[in-house]
Specification:
By secondary structure, the protein is of the alpha+beta class. The chain has a domain of 33 residues. It has 4 helices and 6 strands, in the order αβααβββββα. The strands form 3 sheets. A two-stranded antiparallel sheet has the order 1-6. Keywords: Electron transport, Heme, Iron, Metal-binding, Periplasm, Signal, Transport. It is found in: Periplasm. Pfam families: NapB. One of its GO terms (cellular component) is periplasmic space. One of its GO terms (molecular function) is metal ion binding.
């Protein structure tokens, strides 16, 4: 009986040793096949360099602000697309935002630009509740909406949502068809009024 127990014990130890040895070999194999993140992508070129000779350069709209036509939104309440050149606009920072020179509400009468959305002058953070001096999110979907006459700096990075357009050929068919519940939504955001849609009270 004792001999049988020792044999079983030896067999289990041998199996554990084999599994550990196999795992180490697999890890070593994976280490040798890792791809450097700089090599990931569709082209092997430095896309941030002005000297990189790409087979086809993307041609962005070169119309200057004020001489371009606004575009229909990609979907209801989508961020407006940028129809004019953004050459020398970047980087956009909280302290240096060239978009403000035309799109602030107080400038649009003079510039004829589309005014920054009222949502960008609104705090749309989740509602918080305080317990023993510590603030927690209520997690019930409610927003603590508060309006301000000042721009909400949470939105300072315009190009995170608003993008310039380029003349490119894409070999993938786009089957997306936008549907607008209101004809005016093709050109104007209604997000400020509809921000709570789908959130149960």
């Amino acid at each position: 009986m004792i001999a049988n127990f020792n044999s079983t014990k030896r067999l289990i130890l041998l199996l554990v040793f084999a599994v550990v040895l196999f795992s180490c070999a697999e890890n070593k194999k994976n280490e040798n096949t890792l791809i450097d993140e700089d090599k990931l992508g569709f082209i092997d070129a430095d896309v941030e360099s002005e000297d990189t000779n790409l087979k086809s350069m993307t041609e962005y709209a070169m119309d200057v602000p004020g001489q371009s036509e606004t575009m229909e939104r990609a979907f209801e309440n989508a961020p407006p697309l940028i129809p004019h050149t953004t050459l020398n606009f970047f980087p956009i920072t909280r302290d240096n935002n060239i978009c403000f020179s035309c799109h602030l509400p107080e400038r649009v009468e003079e510039t004829g630009a589309v005014p920054i959305s009222p949502t960008h002058f609104t705090n749309l953070r989740p509602e918080m509740e305080e317990k023993a001096g510590i603030y927690y999110t209520t997690f019930d979907g409610k927003l603590a909406m508060s309006e301000s006459k000042n721009f909400n700096n949470a939105y300072f990075n315009c190009s995170q949502c608003h993008v310039p357009q380029a003349d490119v050929t894409v070999n993938i068919e786009n089957l997306f068809t936008p549907e607008f519940r209101d004809v005016l939504a093709r050109d104007k955001s209604q997000l400020k009024d509809k921000i709570s849609e789908g959130i149960s009270e």
